Amino acid sequence: MMSKKQTVFNLLFLVIVFGLTMYLVFRGKDIGDIIRTAREADGRYLLLSLVCVVFFILGESVIIFYMMKTLGASVKMTHCALYSFVGFFFSCITPSASGGQPMQIFYMKKDKLPIPVTTLVLMIVTITYKAVLVVIGVLICFLGGDFLRGYLGDYMWVFYLGVGLNVFCVTFMMILVFAPGLAKWIMVKGLKIIEHVRILKPKKARLEKLEASMDQYHATAAFWASHKRIILNVFIITFVQRCILFTVTYWVYRALGLHEYGILTVTILQAVISVSVDMLPLPGGMGISETLYMVMFVPVFGPLLLPSMLLSRGISYYGQMLISALMTCVAHLTIGRKNEEIQRM
């Protein structure tokens, strides 16, 4: 679990980035007029977009429950939902979404779930989560490059960078899974080089911990090889899960009374933003997401661009964070309580 110091730092970093983003986006603009326009949006479509955010989060809980049952672990679906809310909340507030899975493992451990099982499940969730972005990004590169240039213009390099980083990440994960010996050699060699140039002090315990942590990838490779159909099912669920979140911007588009663009175009443009910012070391891609939005969606929203961004980002990211924060409190108050009470008796 993250220390209090880490949590305070992450929240402070989030507030600073949020403040700078809001200042750069809205400086010189009539904020009152933007808010009034946003408040006049059709509430039915906004509610639908909020439902999509909840479905997006719960999509991961379906995967966790499905895989836990496959591995013979006893777990409640309601607790899987809470693990997902915890993961998304801490992913929202930490750079590169680095805090989500450690916190999920913490709460799974409170439920007495075996750590090797939880690590395996979350590792496969991570790989498929990134793999879906890679597939979407590569498809857009090959099938919609010219289409995309009309919206991104000089910012195409940001999209290519995002695709490249995601491909690198998934490739490295695959090496960890299918060539654990090679991955272990690379990681150990890298650590020794870092210690040799005195970036870190040499510690035998650190090397032993790294070598031990690499062994868990053997289990992942074995599961992947013997459960290909399950991995395919997880990939399909993840693909649908991500596409559901990408449609939020379209429902905002309809909420503002616009009809010219279809759901496929708006959803693809939002997917491009997600692919571009997913690997950047900012909580929720904050700052760069808003910048790309204001570049890409000019022809889609026209004079309603800023109100649309306020609603779209407010629901898909900040709404997701607030809902997840509330459910994280529920998780903290409920998960593992019975086990703690038994230990005190």
Automatic annotation (TrEMBL):
Sorted alphabetically, which InterPro entries does this protein's record hold?
L-PG_synthase/AglD
What EC number(s) does the entry state? 2.3.2.3
User: A Pfam family in this protein?
Assistant: LPG_synthase_TM
Give the bilayer topology: Multi-pass membrane protein
- Membrane-crossing ranges are 6-26, 46-68, 80-99, 120-145, 157-179, 230-253, 259-280, 292-311, 317-335
What's in the keyword line of the UniProt record? Antibiotic resistance, Cell membrane, Lipid metabolism, Membrane, Transferase, Transmembrane, Transmembrane helix
Q: Which reaction does it catalyse?
A: L-lysyl-tRNA(Lys) + a 1,2-diacyl-sn-glycero-3-phospho-(1'-sn-glycerol) = a 1,2-diacyl-sn-glycero-3-phospho-1'-(3'-O-L-lysyl)-sn-glycerol + tRNA(Lys)
What function does the entry list? Catalyzes the transfer of a lysyl group from L-lysyl-tRNA(Lys) to membrane-bound phosphatidylglycerol (PG), which produces lysylphosphatidylglycerol (LPG), a major component of the bacterial membrane with a positive net charge. LPG synthesis contributes to bacterial virulence as it is involved in the resistance mechanism against cationic antimicrobial peptides (CAMP) produces by the host's immune system (defensins, cathelicidins) and by the competing microorganisms.
PANTHER family, from UniProt? INTEGRAL MEMBRANE PROTEIN, PHOSPHATIDYLGLYCEROL LYSYLTRANSFERASE
According to UniProt, the name of this protein is: Phosphatidylglycerol lysyltransferase
Question: What is the protein's species of origin?
Answer: Blautia faecis
Lineage of origin: Bacteria, Bacillati, Bacillota, Clostridia, Lachnospirales
